[in-house]
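Researcher: Last one for today. Full complex below.
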Amino acid sequence: MKDIKREMLLFSMYDRTGLQKHFEKLAAEGWMLEDIGNCFIRYRRSEPRRIHFCVSYYYKASAFDPYPTEEEQEFRDLCAHTGWEVAASNGKLLVFYNEREDPIPIETDPALEVDAIHKAMMRSTILANAVCLLPALLGLWLSIGQLVTDPVGWLSRPYGSFSLLCWLVLLLLLGVELGGYFLWRRRALKAAEQGVFYPTPNHFPLQAVGLGVVAIALVGYLIDVLLQSSPLMKLITFVMLGWTALVYLGVNGTRILLKRKGVSRGVNRAATLAVDVALAFGLLAVIVFFTIRAAGSSLLDDSIYLSGDPPLSVSDLADVDLDGYLTRRTGDETVLLGQYEVFQHVDWRRDDPDLALPSLEYTVTEVKLPFLYSWCRDRLYHEDDKYGEKFGYGYKAVDPAPWGAMEAWERVYDDGGRTNRFLLCYGRSIVLIDFGPEWTVRFGPDWAPTPDQMATVGEKLGK
Amino acid sequence: MPRLKFQTLTEQMFYVLLCLKTECCGMDILDRVPAMTGGRVSVGSGTLYNLLEQFLDVKMIRETKVEGRRRSYVLTPAGRERLREEYRRIAAQGEDYRRVFGEEETK
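Model: Here's the assembly. Have a good evening.
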């Protein structure tokens, strides 16, 4: 039977109501609070006891203090005088327990308590959250920028969906934490005028769901990187992950080690900051080093090659020998969308201009969530509007039946000339197919896909 | 409207200051307040700690000695004056009550 139990710290720092109730419940179940870290709470098995807990805030304390300062110790002594002993502490947060049946609470004036919480919060959590808010907003802005530029591609790339999700969850949690705190403080101050202690809100479920979503997304992202990414992406992803863990362990380890050694608050803070900066710049240096080393090698080709034959090949549409052809098939997939592209053309070293061997390019977008279908179709339809205006072309609706599609458009010049590009909508997939210029060179200037070729495209790519 | 700091004193502030007529430390105050009020008023240790700090800031009390981790305080003339004003305010309230309900009602 294990004697130690750990759980993630999913309470807001100011949630004294939630923390107190939680510790009291666990003590009654035989788990006594032993330590509060930045991420985890540790309990030790004990006799089940009905004891009181009180979460208090001592704003002058610091997470870098090797031991309680004289002033903090005076505060602890006062609390001990009324039976309150420290169970655990983390920086400005002190958790006391009291075995007396009906002890005098540590805080008996709600206005002073709100004031003490505010002083502690402004010097710790609020400051840290406000600092995090800036990169979170920047990250979300960059993700949204990429989403607007190439929405279908971005949402079909695991990293795109993963980063967008992470930034959204982070912003939501920061917003709830900051907004929730100031809302609570406003209400608590009002209640304090009437001498009432206002309970703190509990964001435990939201934090748990948010972190759970990010953890699942991270696992999904890593599996995808392992299975589908290029060697360079694999390397970068795992170096970044490993280094992030190293930065976290290095920074916290330094702080804890120096605390145990009894190093003063100021020295500890400076040393921890130095380690943090050194590791962060180290990470940058490692990435630059690997990128330079990888330059010129195949590592830098970050295309994600899919194995197997492409679903539609030039040889399915024309009587050509694929010998001498290069086929590049790349793709990405998320739970929202999948997108793969096939480029099939003759190796220029073997190309013979007289033969005009036809090339083929197509992109198939598979929409997994039906509500995204019309949005994806519209985005693909308008994808090259900018160039359309410049070069004078646009889409014209054509009969979808020969393609076996639900809707079909052909991109044509303003004067009616063909560009050999078609946008085809099937039940779940949207196909953008380009027949290269060699088709008209080889089969004449009036060449257009024959009904048989259209049917083949529909049969091979339509889903 | 939030109350201006120490413009009126809460019951706990009043009794903490009252205890400091003579020099005493925090722990003494924690014991004296319930004893003085027959258990009707108690001051929490966190509340007392913050109150002492704030009274020191506005010079209503002053530190007299430090023995180990035990600090003693005593009321300053400013604190004494503030306490007197509060007494007058409370007394005036009592007077008003008596005027409205008569002497009999106060028994």
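Helices of chain B lie at 11-19, 26-36, 45-57, 77-105. The longest strand of chain B covers residues 61-67.
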